[in-house]
Design brief:
The chain is α+β, with helices and mostly antiparallel strands and 245 residues long. The protein contains 4 helices and 7 strands; from the N terminus they run ααααβββββββ. A hairpin with a 2-residue loop joins strand 4 (186-194) and strand 5 (197-204). It starts with a helix and ends in a 10-residue tail after the last strand.
Length: 245
Amino acid sequence: MLKIDLINEAYQEIRISGLTTQPLPSELEYALTKLESMASEWEDVRNICVNYNFENEPDPNSEAGIKLGYRQAFATNLASRLIASFGKTPSPALITQASQSFAGLSTATAVVRETQYPERQPVGSGNSLRYNRWRRFYRQNPRAPIDCDTQQITQGEINDYQLNLVDYLEDGETVESYTYEASPKISVISESLSGLIWSYRAEAAETAEQLERIQLTVVTDIGREQTFTINFNVAPLPNITRQGS
């Protein structure tokens, strides 16, 4: 799905609301700016992570990067933001569609974390640690930040990830060498660097904590060293209850 597809669909929603002319090239360019701004707002302010393809120089013919199921939310909400520039107000139907699709998008991308017991709650006699019998209260485990830079994984799961370094290096700067280090309960199975994109496959142990980390340290062609910390929000294994048990 291209960015221009989202823009054209947004203008189609506006035509349904009463616009009778085709958008001019300048209006398509304006819509692209609004689309980039909306996607940035959703990610930076609302922590809605949809893998949108942000570019230093946005191109309407670039891939949007979002799932097909998010298309309606992008198109209707973009239409709601564009329609005022034509001297019109959104129709009740457009307002409803934009609101409902945005609510669905927010729910679909919400990060759900396991609720921790408060530190004041006793662990109970049956939950004492084997080598720490005098620990009478639950302890709070570190948690991963809730933002779009945090990766998601489940205990025992293997997933593929990418880290794009283009926004962190200076113009024309390249990677001369790099090393990585993972916390004990998450491992890098395979990895490769292509240009400024580090691709890696990570596996979380079944006993992984809620927060695990991978650190990538790069040395550039001008001798500059920079370390990137990748936080993982580790979801617990689902409890599966067998019938008859």
